[in-house]
Amino acid sequence: MSNPASKKILIVEDEHDILQLVKLYLEKEGFRTLSATTGAEALRQVRHEKPDLVVLDLMLPEISGLEVCKRLRSAPETAMLPIIMLTAKAEESDTIIGLELGADDYVTKPFSPKTLVARIKALFRRFERKADDGQAQYRYGTLVMDLARHEVTVKKVEVPLTAKEFGLLEHLLRSPGRVLTRDLLLNTVWGYDYHGTTRTVDVHIRRLKQKLPSLNEAIVSVKSLGYKLKDP
């Protein structure tokens, strides 16, 4: 990952102690931080400060974290902004909704600050990953994935994807016809030893199909295993 000092992270959390703890650990790792305690303030900060990543609590005054996520994803200038949600275990249904709205990852309270930092770094690495093995592009019908530019187009029209959606599509395009298990996708795309539910993969695959209707029939669910992309 590039120098953390070049990365600016917005922490959106209304619990003062948690906000200060996250801020402390991120700054110790060299990141620059911004903070907001309400959903409305978070949206203003994103608009004016243009952070590189948002750590977003779900339960916020004024405007909920889910609504903040929805608004960020619906605006072209923030459609690909990395978002990590902070959730309580009792909010599992909201967590799934958040993932469906386009959040890239989530951390359940109570959490280890070190775990949060690791996931933030993994998300940045996903965005910064350049073409390797000499493979700069993948093509599937009218779809083109440009790894170096972190861009996906269909019929030359760009389709904004979140980091996780991009990562899932990249792995599917790398291995057409091969079954990719949910555990494999979690460990490779999420970039760490993931201990959450494999339902996360299903949510992101569903979003990927919504954004790329041409792949609706091409991405096949393999019962009890995972997914594969049909040979073109």
Distance between the termini: 34 Å
CATH class of the largest domain: Alpha Beta
Classified in CATH, the superfamily of the largest domain is Response regulator
CATH fold naming of the largest domain: Rossmann fold
CATH architecture of the largest domain: 3-Layer(aba) Sandwich
How would you characterize the overall build of this protein?
The protein is an alpha/beta fold. The protein has helices spanning 16-28, 39-49, 65-74, 92-101, 113-128, 163-174, 182-189, 199-211; strands at 8-12, 32-36, 53-57, 83-88, 105-109, 137-140, 143-146, 151-154, 157-158, 180-181, 219-222, 226-229. The strands form three sheets. A five-stranded parallel beta sheet has the order 2-1-3-4-5, with helices on both faces. The chain has two domains: 4-128, Response regulator (Rossmann fold, 3-Layer(aba) Sandwich), CATH 3.40.50; 137-229, Winged helix-like DNA-binding domain superfamily/Winged helix DNA-binding domain (Arc Repressor Mutant, subunit A), CATH 1.10.10.10. A hairpin with a 4-residue loop joins strand 7 (143-146) and strand 8.
Topology:
Blueprint: E1 8-12, H1 16-28, E2 32-36, H2 39-49, E3 53-57, H3 65-74, E4 83-88, H4 92-101, E5 105-109, H5 113-128, E6 137-140, E7 143-146, E8 151-154, E9 157-158, H6 163-174, E10 180-181, H7 182-189, H8 199-211, E11 219-222, E12 226-229
Parallel strand pairs: 1-2, 1-3, 3-4, 4-5
Antiparallel strand pairs: 6-7, 7-8, 8-9, 10-12, 11-12
Helix pairs in contact: 1-5, 2-3, 3-4, 4-8, 6-8
